[in-house]
Structure of Arginine biosynthesis bifunctional protein ArgJ:
Amino acid sequence: MSVTGPAGFRAAGVAAGIKASGDRDLALVVNDGPGQAAAGVFTTNKVKAAPVLWSRQVLQERRLRAVVLNSGGANACTGPEGFQDTHATAEKVAEVLGTGAIEVAVCSTGLIGERLPMDAVRSGVDAAARALDGSEQAATDAAHAVLTTDTKAKQATGQGEGWSIGGFVKGAGMLAPNLATMLSVLTTDAVIDGENLDKALRAATRVTFDRLDVDGGTSTNDTVLVLASGASGVEPSLAEFTALLTSVSQDLVRQLQADAEGATKAIDITVRGAASEADAVHIGRIIAEDNLVKTALFGSDPNWGRIAMALGRAEAEIDVDKLEIATNGVTLFAGGTKARDRAEADLSGRDIEIVVDLHLGEHEATILTTDLSHGYVEENSAYSS
Amino acid sequence: MSVTGPAGFRAAGVAAGIKASGDRDLALVVNDGPGQAAAGVFTTNKVKAAPVLWSRQVLQERRLRAVVLNSGGANACTGPEGFQDTHATAEKVAEVLGTGAIEVAVCSTGLIGERLPMDAVRSGVDAAARALDGSEQAATDAAHAVLTTDTKAKQATGQGEGWSIGGFVKGAGMLAPNLATMLSVLTTDAVIDGENLDKALRAATRVTFDRLDVDGGTSTNDTVLVLASGASGVEPSLAEFTALLTSVSQDLVRQLQADAEGATKAIDITVRGAASEADAVHIGRIIAEDNLVKTALFGSDPNWGRIAMALGRAEAEIDVDKLEIATNGVTLFAGGTKARDRAEADLSGRDIEIVVDLHLGEHEATILTTDLSHGYVEENSAYSS
């Protein structure tokens, strides 16, 4: 059911003619209330797309009536005219819904540097408004309309006691997506105010979207939004709400990892025994982004020397003599030297688990990544995206 | 002539049986004086190979009689036993040359995590000592003996007035080599003391080896050594010496860039108008290491949106409205939006020049890199190295 699962939401996904392919390319998610609390987190990239600048601004009110999303163009690096296009899109949605533009967030994904075809966007908004519906199909149509190089729609739901969370996502990461954009819209019918919604969203994304790192790239458009209708009439505790939001977010992140461009492996890198959680995340990311590690794993090679090389670049405390490196349960490096022959670690399957134990403290983190394959090179060299 | 070009040096490269292939795998470079000043710069990786730990230690004296180098094994992550192997190698060289181990630097390259076959190393040192010779062939043999996945030996020379500099290199970078190791030995017959040699080497490597970034990896073994015999009797000014050392180093770096694994493009990224040189270097590296930029360039695609995305991740001052991005002389992005159609920039040739002008200051730097190709993925996934 994804975004229409929670009571109080309708959605639509239509083919507006933004994409040359004629595929669905414009989605609308509407919160019919009674509540309209909302929160958002956005890319840390210094080059921010027009829709990010707009949505960040309107989210200061922590209220949203609707989100409009398009694929087929990122509307990034498009100057003041691009910002006006985003504003005009929000105005158009506000008009058809009888609300103000300040209650409409905008998300875009696709090629950087090109203006959007605004006639298509406007007529697409009209078509989407007519198609708005609380059905499962409508949510799936919306989830499809935001895809770019994704091979499938990615949706998830979570059930509380008398309330629920739903959401969809496209792309491949929060701080390190593999293509132009990672966009996610989450909905809930729980009763929760904007401030708590913001707290819950930051807590959830910090340990889910923020820990997926496919190729170190951070998009100009990354956005995660959550909208709360309060239609269930149930007010969960903040802890309870945050836990379910984290669980639904993680479900979506696993789907991003599985569908990342060219990926043949789903790799979990756990760094434990770190002096701080920040060290653990940093070291995990350094390993996840290392092309020599990623190509070795594409070749199913437990080449722990490359993992040691990669983590040695980290700006974090490391003691080589305490360090342990294991792949798929086999400890290959310990006590400053080789522990077991790497032939003992079988990495031929799709799922690979790397555990690095620094033995320096109590903190740990897991970064999810993928391998670097011929498919990745092919997709990203043969097509502009 | 490379390392034997300057007066006072002999070299050798032999097949010691360290590599299973039977190729040359052990090199010796000897300084017959009269001077023995030396300097070295080493990897910044926190995981340092045994030969790096050893050579850094002996270089504190700023004197070297000889350098022994092996391919076929990095002797990294090999614990105290690995360090003893390096020490024993230096002792063996000292014995055959009638000097002390403290005057012998050691460099190793190859797979991380395996001990060296010390019997082969020892008999190889004997064979190399017998083959020592001041000829051009001897220098070329030495340059060949350190290669791993390199496809050719890389040597350079530079001529001062009555003095000269020679050198060889293997691998692909100083702070970001593409494989296990970048090693370089430079020689000179100029009269120069250890302190000035050290200053000149740091100045030269900072703008040459340190600005090559093939894939962001920093080896456990990276080493650049320079040995001065003083045999010419000529004492150039420090500025003159530094200039020639920089020029010879840059020649070697260009050869590394050309021979990087799987590279189909030689890419120069110039960042100008930066608030500081450090910002220019940092932004150049961020672009050079971005897989979406590298795959687009492999596909000869002037996808400047990916360059904008990559540099937006930099921890440096950036003003999108002032930013300009040009590829091969065509300005594609300026004034916050698209400047020219990217079809106008032809990137089909091997050489690609990217110029990013931040318009924020007076500083600039150029980072040399390569593309991310199927060949890179193939070499690094199909073979352990």
Remarks:
- DSSP finds ten helices and 15 strands in chain B.
- The mean pLDDT of chain B is 90.
- Chain B has two domains: 2-255, 266-382.
- The domain at 2-255 of chain B is CATH 3.60.70.12 (L-amino peptidase D-ALA esterase/amidase).
